[in-house]
Amino acid sequence: SLLTGGTARSDLERPLFNQVVVLTGGAGGIGTATAKALAAAGAKVAIGDLDGDAAAALADSLGEGHYGAQLDVTDYAGFEKFVDEAEAELGPLYAIVNNAGLMPLNAFDEEPREITELQINVNLYGVINGTQIAMHKLKPLRRGQIVNIASQAGKTGFPGGATYCATKFAVVGLSEAVRNELHGSGVGVTCVMPGVVDTRLGAGLSQPGFVELVTPQEVADGIVRGIVEDRPEIWLPKMTRAMIPVIQLLPAKVRDRMSRAMGTDKTLGEPNREVRAEYEKEIAG
Known about the structure:
By secondary structure, the protein is an alpha/beta fold.
């Protein structure tokens, strides 16, 4: 497709040609797929990740005109410095994709305090930091896009991931509020809400048979569409865009019974711990 590409194309065929896009959490999973999709769409991509070497290596692999460096999204001053350095290397910011996030799974009353704080710091404060920095950069230019990666766990609470759900509910609300604050400014906000994605973060999750597993490439394509078309929301898979809002209209007890009947209460609550062991250990470390 036009967005995922890999073959040579004219500048007119690349809808983000020469636009500078900052991407957080870019060195793996959704981030890597998104970096490649953005580059295929013509963007100059600034990849930030805690693993600065991996971010720089990915930027180099995309060819000339990209930038990669270490970034801790929880450090506002460091985040601001990263964006400044990216602009010095590539040009003025056009869009930011707040993708960095993590999902440790625990019964809420057994969750270590440091893991609770880590999720809030990365999944919420990281998005707040990136959104505020982007607003400061883009509002004077009266153009550009802010893309926040939330989750369908930001629309429905799943047992086993209470803090994760709380952060994603917050990202959904933040995105909606900021989108309306920016009305008429020329700056758009896109909130991306995937279901279970085939990445390390989503490894070992219990997936209901009637819902498709989402690939990183599908999320990447959705992100590019959000920027190019100024879409307020991107739902993946598409079928959930109609299904989840309708379910939310039902009384809470009915929703809970449906969740148990369909098995969605097990999605985060009964993961394959063996499959997730390495990922969970990395977070805890």
